[in-house]
Amino acid sequence: MKIKLHKKFTKQFSKLNKNQKLKCKDRLNLFLDDPFNELLNNHALQGKYKGLRSINMSGDLRAIYEMINNNTAFFIDLDTHSNLYS
């Protein structure tokens, strides 16, 4: 599995504090090993994000991604639950 990052995801990641960054890196590594690990709460989205999926990164942080093919996930956005889904 490969991960590609959208510039919006990268920008949001750069705004995180050190602990949040470490947690997110851990979750991305966990995603690489097992995208459906129960800690990630990987689930399909609906509404304006229909066709995309979300995983829990840390606390209230969520990452939205799209599976480009069987081997590549494209992470599009990273933000709090309320900011993403309001």
Describe this structure in words.
This protein is α+β, with helices and mostly antiparallel strands and 86 residues long. The chain has one domain (2-73): RelE-like (YaeB-like fold, 2-Layer Sandwich), CATH 3.30.2310. The chain has three helices and five strands, in the order βααββββα. It has helices at 7-14, 18-33, 81-85, and strands at residues 2-5, 43-44, 53-58, 61-69, 72-80. It has a five-stranded mixed beta sheet.
Provide keyphrases for this structure.
YaeB-like fold; 86 residues; single chain; alpha+beta; globular
Report a brief summary of the structure.
The chain is of the alpha+beta class and 86 residues long.
